[in-house]
Amino acid sequence: MRLSKVAGYSLILMALTAPAVHADDPCLGDDEKKAALTRSAALQRAEQAGQSTAIFVAYMQIIADDCMDRYDKKAVVRAKANIPKLGRDLAQAAETKGALYSSDAIRADGQTSAFRYYETIGDHQEANRVLLKAVHGKPEDLHLFQTAWNIDNGRYGPVDPNTGSRQPYSSPPAFQQELAKVASTNADRLMKAEEKDAQGLTGNIGDLGKASMQSIEKLRSAALWMKYLPSGDKPAKDRAEHRGDTIMKRPDPTFTQGQAMMYYEFSGSPKANDMAAKIKKKGEESQRAMEKAGEGMKKSFSQKSGAEQIQFDKKKADLEKELGF
Fold first, then answer.
1. Among candidates 54, 103, 106, 112, which has minimal Cα distance to 79?
2. Which SS3 state, helix, strand or coil, does residue 197 take?
3. pLDDT band for position 50 (50/70/90)?
4. pTM of the full predicted structure?
5. pLDDT band at residue 164 using 50, 70 and 90 as cut-offs
C-alpha cells in the first residue's frame, strides 16, 4: 500500500512538472488555431470573388502569421508565391490612376497608393521611383519631400537565407541626388522672391513692417530646404544678417530696430548675436528711462494736486470766517 502511494505521488509530480503539449509551440493554442483558420477562410472567399485587393490583404495576413503553416501550408505557399506579382499589378493600376504616394496602410477597398504596394512586397527601387514621381508632382510640398528624404528609416533588405537576418536598406545615391535638386530649386525660388520683398526695407516706415515680415518668412522657408544641401542654411542666415544691417542704416532706427532684431535673431551669427544684444540692451535702457520719466510726472501731478488742495482749504476757511461760521 505504501509503495502504491509513493508511485501515485510520483505520477502526480510527473504530470505537474511535465510541459504542456503546446508549451514549446505557441501556435498550437486554440486562439492561434482559430485565427489561422479565419485567415484561410478569408483568402478562399477573396479568391472565389476574384477581388484582387482583398486577395492581396489576405496574402499579407497569412504571410505575417507565423502559425499559418501548422494549419494551411498550401495557403502559405500560395501567398508567398503570388504576392510579388499581384502587388506589382496593383501598384501599376494605382499609378495609372495617379495614386502615387500615401502614408496609409494597405486597404482592401482598393484605395491604396502604388508606393505602398511596392513597399509591402519589398520592391524598394520601384517604391522610390513612384515616390520621387510624387515629389516632382508636388515640388513645393516640404512634408512630402521630408518623407522621401527619410524613407530608408526602418527599411530592411531581404532575409539572408544563411543567417536568417536582414540588413538595413539604403537607397542608391541617385535617389537622394534627385531629391537634392528639388531642394535646391525651392531654395533658389524663395531666395529670389525674397529679394523683391527686401526692396521695401529701405522704403517708408509704413511699408517696412509688411516687407520685413514677407522677407524673413521666405528666408526661413528657404533655410528649411537648404538643410538638405551640402552648404546647409548658411546663405539664408547670412542674408538675414545683411537685412538687419540694412534696417539699422535707416534714419529712423529708434522705430525700426525691432525689425532688425528679428533678422539678427534668425541669423544667429556672432555679429548678429552681438547686434541683437545691443538692441535689446538699448531697448531695456529706453524702457527704464520711460518708467523713470513716468514716475517723475506722477510725482509732479501729486505735488501739484496737494498744493491745490491746501489752497482750496484755505479759501474755504476764509469764506467760512467771513460768513461767521
1. 54
2. helix
3. very high
4. 0.77
5. confident
Cβ-proximal residues to 306 (8 Å cutoff; 6+ apart), any chain: none
Give the residue extent of every domain in the chain: 21-127, 186-322
Choose among 229, 223, 228, 144: nearest CA to 191: 223
In the beta sheet, which residues pair with residue 156?
168
Q: Look at the block and give the residue holding cell 515629389.
A: 135
136 within 8 A of 101, measured Cβ to Cβ? no
Distance of CA 324 to the CA centre of its chain: 88
**DSSP conformational letter for 158:** P
- For the chain, the farthest-separated pair of C-alpha atoms sits apart, in whole angstroms, at 137
Q: Determine how many CB atoms are found less than 10 A away from the CB of residue 182.
A: 22
Residues 189/236, Cβ–Cβ less than 8 Å: no
Cell of 317: 476757511
Cα–Cα separations (whole angstroms), residue 90 to 3, 64, 109, 116, 309: 72, 20, 12, 10, 93
CB neighbourhood size of 219 (10 A): 26
- Note the pLDDT tens digit of each residue in 66-110: 999 999 999 999 999 999 999 999 999 999 999 999 989 898 887
C-alpha cell read off for 282? 538699448
pLDDT confidence of 10, banded at 50, 70, 90? very low
Q: Which residues pair with 168 in a beta bridge?
A: 156
